[in-house]
Amino acid sequence: MEHWTHAGLFTRRFGPPPRPGRPNVVLVHGLGLSGRYFVPLARRLAAGGATVFVPDLPGNVRSRSAVRRAPRVTEVAGALRRWHRELALGPSLLVANSVGCQVVAAFAARHPGLVGRVVLLGPALEPGAGGWRQCGRLLADAPREPLGLLAVAAADYLVTGPLRFAASFRHALRDAAESFEGHLARVAAPTLVVRGSGDTIATRAWTRRVAGIVGDGRAAEVGGAAHAAHYSAPGAVAALIEEFGAGGRA
What we know:
Rossmann fold, 44% helix, 250 residues, eight-stranded mixed beta sheet
C-alpha cells in the first residue's frame, strides 16, 4: 500500500500503478468514516490485479482539514471529481458503502464519462425514513458487525468529531429526501447493488428498489454479512465485484 495527499484528500493506493487501458477501482466510504474499513476489500481486489484507490472524503478523519465545515453531499461529489481529474484516472469502477452511495450517485449522475461501472454496498440513507429511524437501524446493525470494524469506526468517528458527524448526517438526510433517487435515475453505467443478508440499514426491498431505479441495475446479497459486508466478507464481495467488472451479471 502507498499513501499520500492528493487534491486535499488523503489517498491510499493498492496494487500496481495505473496504466492506460486498465480500469481503476475507487472505494468510497460512508458517513464520518475513513477508507480504513475498506482495506480488507482493497487488498483482495489488488491481489487480483486491480489498481485500487481509497480516499478519505473531505471533512473525514485524515482529510478533515480539507474543509472548514461539513460539506453537503453534492459538494463531496464535487471534491471527488476534482480528485479524480487530477489523478487522470479515466472511467473507473466506483464502489461505495452506505452514505458513500449517495456521493457516488451524485458523481455518476453529473460525470457519466468518468464512470465505467458502479457497485453500491448497502446504499443508505433510504428516502422517507426519518433521522431517528435511521439511527435505530444503525444501532441494530452494530452487534452484527465484527468487533474489529466497531473499533475502526469508533476511532474514525472520534477523529471526525461529533459536531461534524451530526452536520454531515443532516446533509445526508436532506439529500436522501430531495436528491438521491433523482441522482440514481440518471446513473447510466451498469450498476450492482449489494447488501449483507443481515443488514438492518439497507433493507432487501430498498436495495431492489435502487437496482430498479438505475438505468442498468441488478441486485445481489452476501449471506451472513451485515451493513459492512466488504469488511466481514471481503472475499465474497471482491468476487462479486471482479465478476461484475469483467462484464458478468454477478
